């Protein structure tokens, strides 16, 4: 089965570049941007051999998992581009809801709970860039950018999903669609993802709809009201995860009652957050 775009994505002007094998979908997308591609291009493969996660970490992706990158070329305020990760998380969660049959996929204790301890979401979003199922990481999102000149820039919105397999040697739990009993393949998931992205991108509307995206994200957020530890460079901030603010920063109420707003950092919930070191 070949990768295909949803009709909604085609109508909105998105294109597709499919690869049997690729080093990195993000790297390919940014190379295409530097060569003059206008964006709205999905670069996809189910055999990515050189993927990477945040902070230069390797992203393990055995054949059969989904590696997809959307190339965005724009000239709006660059800081708005960082919120595309929240659009991507919502799109992927919506896509997973669409392709995975109803079942008992719950959020585990170490992932915390959604708003008001609402556990109706089978797939939840962990700030800033993970999608969880059963408290375990199923997918990661990585945004990378490059300046193109004349006020324009390119953003590669990379989405890696554990479809048929997940890493076993991580310091946190991970899972895959197959491990959860879902028979969905990478092509079917991507079809749903391209449709869900089109919907959420229209809502985001180049940042004009960020408040609506934030509200939707909070409805799926893992860990609100839970004990949390965030590693920021060489220090760890501990407290209760309260919300994300209007700029999508992570908001913690620390143990002294103060408010800490985090723009970037590694987040740990539950038992890991309560440990003496992260």
TrEMBL record:
Question: What cellular component terms from Gene Ontology apply here?
Answer: cytoplasm
Highest taxon of source: Bacteria
Record domain BPL/LPL catalytic: where: 1-205
Q: Name one GO molecular function term.
A: biotin--[biotin carboxyl-carrier protein] ligase activity
Question: Which reaction is the catalytic activity of this chain?
Answer: biotin + L-lysyl-[protein] + ATP = N(6)-biotinyl-L-lysyl-[protein] + AMP + diphosphate + H(+)
User: SUPFAM superfamilies given for it?
Assistant: C-terminal domain of transcriptional repressors, Class II aaRS and biotin synthetases
Q: Which UniProt keywords apply?
A: ATP-binding, Biotin, Ligase, Nucleotide-binding
**Gene3D superfamilies xrefs:** 2.30.30.100, Bira Bifunctional Protein, Domain 2 (3.30.930.10)
EC main group: ligase
Q: Does the keyword Kinase apply?
A: no
What PROSITE patterns does this protein map onto? Answer: BPL_LPL_CATALYTIC
Q: What is its EC number?
A: 6.3.4.15
The protein's name in its UniProt record: biotin--[biotin carboxyl-carrier protein] ligase
What organism, scientifically named, is this protein from? Aquamicrobium lusatiense
Its organism's taxonomic lineage begins at: Bacteria, Pseudomonadati, Pseudomonadota, Alphaproteobacteria, Hyphomicrobiales
């Amino acid at each position: 089965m070949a990768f295909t775009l949803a009709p909604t994505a085609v109508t909105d002007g998105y294109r597709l570049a499919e690869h049997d094998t690729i080093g990195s979908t993000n790297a390919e997308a940014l190379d295409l941007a530097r060569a003059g591609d206008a964006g709205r291009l999905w670069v996809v493969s189910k055999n990515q051999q050189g993927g990477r996660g945040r902070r230069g970490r390797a992203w393990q992706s055995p054949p059969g998992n989904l590696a997809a990158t959307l190339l965005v070329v724009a000239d709006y305020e660059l800081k708005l581009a960082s919120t595309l990760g929240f659009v991507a998380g919502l799109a992927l969660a919506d896509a997973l809801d669409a392709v995975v049959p109803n079942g008992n996929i719950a959020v585990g204790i170490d992932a915390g709970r959604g708003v008001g301890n609402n556990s109706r979401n089978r797939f939840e979003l962990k700030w800033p860039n993970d999608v969880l199922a059963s408290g375990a990481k199923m997918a990661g999102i990585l945004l990378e950018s490059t300046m193109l000149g004349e006020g324009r820039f390119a953003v590669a919105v990379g989405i890696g999903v554990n479809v048929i397999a997940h890493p076993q040697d991580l310091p946190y739990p991970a899972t895959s669609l197959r491990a959860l009993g879902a028979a969905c393949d990478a092509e079917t998931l991507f079809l749903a993802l391209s449709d869900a992205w089109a919907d959420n991108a229209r809502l985001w509307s180049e940042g004009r709809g960020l408040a609506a995206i934030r509200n939707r994200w909070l409805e799926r957020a893992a860990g609100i009201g839970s004990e949390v530890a965030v590693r920021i460079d060489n220090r760890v901030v501990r407290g209760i995860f309260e919300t994300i603010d209007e700029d999508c920063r992570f908001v913690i109420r620390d143990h002294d009652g103060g408010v800490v707003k985090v723009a970037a950092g590694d987040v740990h919930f539950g038992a890991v957050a309560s440990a003496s070191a992260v």
